[in-house]
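Example with several molecule types.
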Amino acid sequence: GAGVSQSPRYKVAKRGQDVALRCDPISGHVSLFWYQQALGQGPEFLTYFQNEAQLDKSGLPSDRFFAERPEGSVSTLKIQRTQQEDSAVYLCASSLAGGGNTGELFFGEGSRLTVL
Amino acid sequence: DQQVKQNSPSLSVQEGRISILNCDYTNSMFDYFLWYKKYPAEGPTFLISISSIKDKNEDGRFTVFLNKSAKHLSLHIVPSQPGDSAVYFCAASVTQGAQKLVFGQGTRLTINP
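Resulting structure tokens for the full complex:
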């Protein structure tokens, strides 16, 4: 497809379960970002990849959160031993290297995680 | 601490009138600002941006104003249309292209026919 694709769109997990969220960026986009959006809040930065290199993971809230992009294309965000406070929409975004002239990020529709 | 703040959770405007959405920031290192628009069940989409070397940027019905001394920016939509009803997020970054965006909480704009 032409846009950023995320799966699953909705995920319900029991507390303590591990989850994996997938992101397919726009073809040719070098940069990939994960953001977490809690209910009623704006997106918050989690981590950033340039190709396969994870250049910034300062936003990951704990060591239960892990992201990878092994071949510089598809990325997976993994959350181990999920907690209720992990419930949020997880947004993936991609951009051309340097974001072009506008610094524009292209967002996917998000994966809504609910932890019971 | 909330470095980017949108103090109005919601705004209702009559169709055809001007919509003004406001955003304040605290980090003086921010030098690039963007507005994103979000419809329900969709990801945010880029709307307009402004660099700190400018105080105004215009794109069709959308104009963004930046007041660096006040650390304040605003988005003007004129004339407002029903399709403009959405949540609008203000975002800021240090250096254009850095892309580690800091977002505000969003303002839900409703355009009434």
